[in-house]
Amino acid sequence: MKINQNEITPETLFENRRKFIKLGAASVVASSTLMELMAKENLPTSDLSYKKDTNPNNLELNTYKQITSYNNFYEFTTSKEGVKHMAHTLVTTPWTIEIDGLVEKPFTIDMQDIMKKYSLEERIYRFRCVEGWSMVVPWIGFELGKFIKDCKPLSDAKYVRFETLWDDEMFPDQARGVFGNIKRYPYVEGLRMDEAMNPLTILSVGLYGKTLENQNGAPIRLVVPWKYGFKSIKSIAKISFVKDEPLNSWQEMAPHEYGFYANVNPKVDHPRWSQKRERVLGELFKQKTLMFNGYEKEVAHLYKGMDLRKNF
Ligand SMILES: Nc1nc2c(c(=O)[nH]1)N[C@H]1C(S)=C(S)[C@@H](COP(=O)(O)O)O[C@H]1N2
Ligand SMILES: [Mo]
Question: How far is CA 60 from CA 52, 110, 216, 226, 256, in A?
Fold first, then answer.
């Protein structure tokens, strides 16, 4: 059967390529043909090597196009469809992350060194925004816990605080001052140390085999799959180890609507809407939202004895 080139979507190509890669040396010719095709059609070409996820929960992936075309990144705009058209002003090379606070010795690490130091793996995760939409993303990254160990935090470091880059030439909304979408830039997020060390928590540098697009938080962003999407802070420039619970940007702006924990919880509604259901990008019908976004087995123990209504 002859396939019309125009009918080939990025995802079929991606899947085909993965199958070819699995087949090994015998398929090198076919595989390179596909690679050429991908280049010609301007489709994402894998530029990362990583260990594949076995996808034990058999999650159905959202497409590359969906994941890169519908974004929340208020430093550009509040228009989810608009972010990708504006995100080119973010320059991600060179890029450094500053590590400070309660560590043996503060330091700065270059993104290039991070890429050399940490081996990458794929993590296929559900991702649930507090607004009621969700998707399944094949992230590429490494465990935040591994990175934290190398930061050598002191014993009184109880929380980790993250900051997005502050640069009002790269992020137009940061130049708007009090008229900006976020009350006070840079965007801040935080995790309790045990949440940060949980093996599900990753720093992501790519998705679908390719380094992150700017709209998804290039060059490096947090992914915490059992929490609402706003915890997964993008384009990280600073990581601080601190004694007290950090005040995250959304809590600062609307404390009765957004807390520090932000665990996905269908039983605790947002003051303005229900959290019982969610719409997966590209789907017509809503589906049930799962406790801890389906990661209850892995993370429920972190919150034993806590009132999840109070600590929302
Ligand atoms: N710096 C920064 N990080 C951010 C945001 C943002 O506006 N600025 N939005 C958050 C929200 S609300 C969501 S749902 C996710 C969206 O990630 P995505 O665009 O890759 O899907 O990023 C989170 N991280
Ligand atoms: Mo979100």
Answer: 15, 34, 20, 17, 34
